[in-house]
Design goal:
The structure is a homodimer of 348-residue chains. Chain A starts with 6 loop residues before the first helix and ends with a strand. Helices cover 43% and strands 17% of the residues of chain A. The radius of gyration of chain A is 26 Å and the shape is elongated. Chain A has a six-stranded parallel sheet with strand order 2-1-3-4-5-11, with helices on both faces. In chain A, strands 7-6-8-9 form a four-stranded parallel sheet, with helices on both faces. Chain A has 348 residues and is an alpha/beta fold. In chain A, strand 3 (124-128), helix 8 (135-141) and strand 4 form a beta-alpha-beta unit. Chains A and B meet through helix 4, helix 5, helix 6, strand 2 and helix 13 of A and helix 4, helix 5, helix 6, strand 2 and helix 13 of B. The structure holds a DNA duplex (30 and 30 nucleotides).
DNA sequence: GTTAATAGGTTAAACGTTTAATGGAATGAA
DNA sequence: TTCATTCCATTAAACGTTTAACCTATTAAC
């Protein structure tokens, strides 16, 4: 691989100084004559010259690159459509504004994320669903770099964020189940690793208590956001007597896992037990029975986060530091339809 | 945002030269004393110094970053699991070897991809499913940069590539349908935009001709790899008389679209028309009936491509320039089981 | 008491750009 | 002729690192 030609080579070949080449490249027409421009251009194509972006970035002190930071768990993209949806949205705006995206999976136990994040290779960072007590979130609060969190909107936290209102969204779902007559509702959630996990559980509490219903310890199972956890949870719930009549699941993964166990156990859904998921991923739309779920606009989330980040980076300032996008409860076969008979009920 | 401290600031504060700081950072213990090391370290943490990666890259003439190039169509990641699967695989190896990934969606009509690709911001490029006659593939053949193609293995092409054998894979699927007694098989494929499209259609031809079956023009529909195209194709096929008894679909997207139309038309699957997909995406596993399909190991594809690329970049040379990973035909409800009664038949 | 070796630094060039400051020739005006 | 302008181009510093080459005390060897 022969060394690439530099601006110096071009200058020599065109018989001008490197400054002139740079000016031609920049298109500052008032600074050079037509004749030199032609000579420079021909030198460029002869030598197949490409400006070195690294050198440019060093000089300009920016990179036109956005960092997209996730957990080091690299199966994230395929396993959860939330991540790929958000990334798609980020990508869509980045492409429009001519930014690149750098993927930085970081171990959640990494105590010094700044080493990877503040190395000048990105102009700003998007933190996707950071863990509640992790180093990443703490780092973001120090505001050493333009940074936006997506998937976690804590109004008491100063870091700019884009997301849904997890509490209200799950509340709407829970109320719907209650409105359909369920009295013994189980919550299949996640440990409080992420913001959303806590909010969704709090919403369950609120819904139950405002309806005067009991929500004892045994009616809730806190695992992780994945199918296996849902299976485990369902098995626990089936041991109870009386059994719950509905599962409020904090993620679709959990819901699908639970559904599998119920079906294996010969429990009918929704007649015996209704299921409500969260995220409205493809799998709940295609499963049988199709699962009711709470849809969040993942792609818009990503796009909005990117827009916010670019506002910071490019110095436009922020009109709002917190942006909440609406969610929708989608009713399908795994629950009854809501009383007021339209298929979808908005929340927020 | 205050300017970040540089190696110069650290040097000043520690009372040494910047060279010494650099050596301490590098851990060249034989070049400095314990005392200076301590002073430097304390200056570093006092000033919260982070080495500037851009400057490093410039000096070292490399970036420890891999480019992942896709079509500019930013919905790719969510719409097709092939892309996210491959990306996941790439990511998995990149994380292990401490490389970053830069996403570069490039418009397929971009006539000068080198501007974005040869800018020194990546050490090498992974081209995901490039179009057959596009500028990207042509660029890759010029070998100006370490580059690996994934999803297209043309043995007559010198560019290093990782993929499946699309021809053999589809051939196995087609033969299976024939073995099940189908005589009038329609091919629902894609225009020859991508390598795989051509190979899969050629496999259909081969299978039909070797079985002495007719494969007339009207039995094939060439659209794109998406659901809408499948719907269109199915509508066309339903007009034929006699109708085909099986659809060999070149992608799961097409298969799902076709299935939808068949179900709307009251055609039973597989009794009236059998369906075979390709890719084994989640949606065919969850649909009703579940669709038979050809599984390709997307994540391994990505991981292998990344490994190959790193071999080139890090100068280890290539044992093999073309790597073909095995596929499996998965039989589900949308076709009969194969005669020899085991559920999956390997190919390659 | 030389000389050689070693430990522990420093100097300065280089990586490939951008850009402020400067310069000089040609043109135009007085 | 002289001065101001305009046009076109150059010089040189800067961005933040790395590293080969060099330097100077100190210690070791004889």
């Amino acid at each position: 691989m022969k060394p690439r030609s530099t601006i110096k080579d071009v200058a020599t070949r065109a018989g001008v100084s490197i400054a002139t080449v740079s000016l031609v490249l920049k298109g500052q027409t008032e600074r050079y004559s037509e004749k030199t421009a032609v000579r420079v251009q021909e030198a460029i194509s002869r030598l197949k010259y490409r400006p070195n972006q690294t050198a440019r970035n060093l000089q300009r002190r920016l990179s036109r690159t956005l960092g997209f930071v996730t957990h080091k768990d690299y199966e994230l993209l395929t396993r959860s459509q939330w991540y790929s949806g958000v990334l798609d949205g980020v990508l869509s705006l980045a492409v429009e504004r001519d930014y690149d995206i750098k993927l930085s999976p970081i171990a959640s136990d990494n105590s010094a994320p700044e080493r990877k994040l503040e190395d000048g290779s990105t102009d700003g960072i998007i933190l996707a669903a950071p863990e509640e007590n992790g180093a990443l979130l703490k780092w973001a609060r120090e505001e050493n770099m333009p940074c936006v969190v997506v998937g976690r909107v804590d109004l008491n936290d100063k870091v700019p964020a884009v997301g849904i209102d997890d509490f209200e969204a799950e509340l709407a779902a829970a109320r719907a189940l209650i409105a359909q007559g369920h009295r013994r509702i189980a919550f299949l959630g996640s440990a409080w690793i992420q913001w959303s996990a806590r909010q969704r559980e709090l919403a369950y509490d609120k819904a139950m208590s405002e309806a005067g219903l009991a929500a004892p310890r045994e009616l809730r199972f806190l695992g992780r956001y994945h199918e296996q956890s849902g299976e485990e949870a369902a098995r626990e719930m089936l041991k109870l007597s009386p059994r719950p009549t509905a599962f409020l699941c904090a993620s679709d993964e959990i819901a699908i896992g639970a559904l599998r166990v119920l079906q294996q156990a010969g429990v009918r859904v929704p007649q015996d037990i209704a299921i409500m998921g969260f995220d409205d991923e493809l799998k709940v739309q295609l499963s049988r029975p199709q699962l009711s779920s709470v849809r969040q606009p993942t792609s818009e989330l990503g796009r909005t986060a990117a827009a916010l980040l670019l506002d910071i980076i490019e110095g436009r300032g922020l009109k709002e530091r917190k942006i909440i996008l609406p969610t929708t409860v989608i009713f399908r076969e795994s629950t009854a339809r809501p009383d007021h008979s339209d298929a979808a009920v908005g929340s927020m």
